[in-house]
């Protein structure tokens, strides 16, 4: 049974990488099965259709991002700017190591409506919590007043863009190596701190 569970996880892992980097529509079940080294029938045993596989991949990706953010929040003190920095760094790490995770979220606009709605549903509680928290901190005068929905969307879009399309930053001469990514993360944190300090 351990091998069978392992096969299911391997399929999910490979599908996540392929869907997140190439796009859901561009990847076939045959490609995923071939990459994992199993017959298509084995893949279909675990996931009866491509829609089911996409659904399970999205659930796993949303859960992984939620765990990362929740851990960063728990590990940080009460200062709102420190908390924002901690969350950005926490999301940035797996996003840089595995761009496909945020690439899946980038795919929302390209996915069929039911699939996009599912991913939105999975991430909505996390985004709503961030907006509520930010609104409370603004009301308390601990963050600069603004529209918390816009601030959360901008921060998210920036991290997603950096993590999933770093080649676009090459226009300005930036290179996607470890030092460059650290510098980029440091600049983003500095920018958010400057923008949100009361």
Structure, briefly:
Helices cover 75% and strands 0% of the residues. By secondary structure, it is an all-alpha fold. The longest helix is centred in the middle third of the chain and has 27 residues, at 113-139.
Q: How far is it from the N-terminal to the C-terminal residue, by CA? A: 56 Å
Number of strands: 0
Mean pLDDT score, rounded? 83
Number of helices: 9
Low-confidence stretches: none
Taken from the alpha-carbon principal axes, the silhouette is globular
What class would the helix/strand composition place it in? mainly alpha
Biggest beta-sheet profile: none
CATH superfamily of one domain, called what?
Tetracycline Repressor, domain 2
Give the SSE layout.
Layout: H1 2-22, H2 29-36, H3 40-46, H4 50-74, H5 80-97, H6 100-106, H7 113-139, H8 148-164, H9 178-196
Helix pairs in contact: 1-2, 1-4, 1-6, 4-5, 4-7, 5-8, 5-9, 6-8, 7-8
